[in-house]
Design goal:
This protein is of the alpha/beta class and 481 residues long. The protein has 16 helices and 19 strands. It has a seven-stranded mixed β-sheet. A six-stranded mixed β-sheet has the order 8-2-1-12-19-18, sandwiched between helices. The N terminus is likely disordered.
């Protein structure tokens, strides 16, 4: 990656707000990036492979639920949409843990005034597309699937239309790849230059189910929680929807999914592991959803650099697809857009911002990928542990006493904009200090207990001497007198 100083020759060229910019991908990250670039004055063309989702009755693809936290909220605030999104979002203040016995217990995410929000993916995407469409310097192009790109001469070749697939070549000044985990833009970067890239499919997949409203039209379980059924090797979660239903997601090893072949297998499995959910979901709906909905894979992608060829940047899942267990996929992607926008407003050069963005931000994307992977173990297993709950209580106590010095890991991730790689390092230092303090406290307590034991032993010893000595003297006197 070139140094920032090497971008000097490009500053005058790319500070011209008449320069054309192409955003590939009209999902959440792509549409937000298009809006932010249009706010900065650039001429933006946004290309999306799918038809306009605002005109579709059903949209296939990923989960309809997302968890919105501080990083995503601040990005939405930058385009004036935070309040609009929160009007229909459902706050979730804590995890609600469902034990095998049916008992429930809440584990707050942070302070009483802190929460994450359940938002509808499709509605949010539609809102962003509508705002993008309202910008005079932003054009939307649907059913434009990127086939290939030439980074040398900054041309993009699209297949246009769902049936005819006619090719269309577009020239642009700068390219933003926001086309998801299986990014075509990223593949072109890998062919063009030295892009470090790794991907990992975990051995667990997911399947979506639905928990419907009650017959009265109310929520079947309390709505202001992210519900978790942790079962060590696997888990099920539920997020609330505006129609009083819940979107449930079952995360399990593929071998467990493969073992459920019949309706009897499914009902026996749920009776054993999730008995309290069956009457709320309904047997007929459970069977229909389970065998109708596919099992999805979970991929983690890391790459570096995120900027290449003087003309192309990748954002969101194209740069760092992560597993969903920290609820940071959308938030991390939105923060990509916000960081780039902040750099662009500061440096007034799209290429200078791209170089600085890639150099400064890639460690954060790797860090949240690792954090997301490790949090799966916490969600499906550790939340049942008394040691984990004790440690979490200690973290909350320390944060209450030292609010600026000690911040719990989850709070740093979800309720701050501390860069992810700094979150990891700060948490490591905090854990080290707390562990040292606990060891010192334990040694002190052990020493004090030993001191008390010695004192008790000494008193008993002296008391024994005081009782025996008069008897001995009495015997001596009786013998000689």
């Amino acid at each position: 990656v070139p140094r920032l100083s090497q971008c000097g020759p490009f500053r005058a060229e790319m500070s011209n707000k008449e320069a054309s910019v192409a955003v590939v991908g009209g999902g959440l990250v792509g549409s937000l990036q298009g809006i932010l670039l249009s706010q900065s004055g650039y001429q933006v063309d946004l290309y999306e492979a799918r038809p306009d989702i605002r005109t579709q009755e059903h949209v296939s693809g990923r989960s309809i639920n997302l968890a919105l936290s501080v990083r995503g909220r601040e990005a939405l605030r930058a385009v004036g949409l935070e309040d609009t999104v929160l009007e229909t979002a459902i706050p979730m203040h804590a995890r609600m843990i469902h034990a095998l016995s049916g008992e429930t217990s809440a584990q707050p995410y942070g302070r009483k005034d802190q929460c994450i929000y359940s938002v509808d993916r499709r509605k949010l995407n539609e809102l962003l597309l509508s705002v993008a469409e309202s910008k005079p310097n932003l054009s939307l192009h649907f059913e434009h699937k990127l086939a290939r790109a030439s980074l040398d001469d900054k041309t993009l070749v699209f297949q246009v239309g769902e049936k005819d697939k006619q090719e269309k070549t577009v020239e642009t000044d700068f390219i933003f790849g926001c086309d998801g985990a299986h990014s075509t833009v990223r593949r072109q970067m890998m062919r063009w230059g030295r892009l470090n890239y790794s991907q990992e499919y975990i051995e667990h997949g997911y399947k979506e189910l639905t928990l419907p409203p009650t017959s009265e039209g109310d929520f079947a379980i309390p709505p202001n929680y992210l519900h978790i059924w942790p079962r060590n090797e696997f888990m099920m979660i539920a997020l609330p929807n505006q129609d009083c239903s819940f979107t449930m997601t079952l995360f399990m090893p593929f071998k467990v999914f493969d073992s459920i072949e019949t309706e009897e297998d499914l009902l026996a499995f749920f009776t054993k592991h999730f008995p309290d959910s069956m009457d709320k979901i309904g047997v007929a709906r459970l069977v229909r959803d389970y065998f109708q909905n596919p099992v999805g894979g979970l991929i983690s992608v890391k790459c570096y650099p995120h900027y290449m060829a003087g003309s192309i940047v990748i954002l969101g899942d194209a740069a760092h697809a992560i597993v969903p267990f920290y609820g940071q996929g959308m938030n991390a992607g939105f923060e990509d857009c916000l960081i780039f926008y902040e750099l662009l407003e500061k440096l007034k050069s799209i290429k200078a911002a791209a170089v600085r963005y890639s150099i400064a931000h890639w460690r954060d994307t790797h860090a949240i990928a690792d954090l997301s992977m490790s949090n799966y173990i916490e969600m499906r297993a550790h939340v049942n542990s008394r040691v984990f709950l004790l440690r979490k209580s200690l973290d909350n106590l320390l944060h209450a006493v030292f609010p600026r010095t000690f911040i719990p890991l989850y709070s740093m991730v979800a309720f701050s904009r501390i860069p992810y790689h700094q979150v990891v390092e700060r948490n490591r230092r905090q854990r080290h200090r707390v562990n040292k303090a606990l060891v010192l406290l334990g040694v002190t307590a052990l020493g004090f207990a030993g001191y008390l034991f010695y004192q008790c032993w000494l008193r008993e010893k002296l008391a024994l001497h005081y009782r025996v000595l008069p008897c001995v003297l009495g015997c001596i006197l009786d013998e000689y007198w």
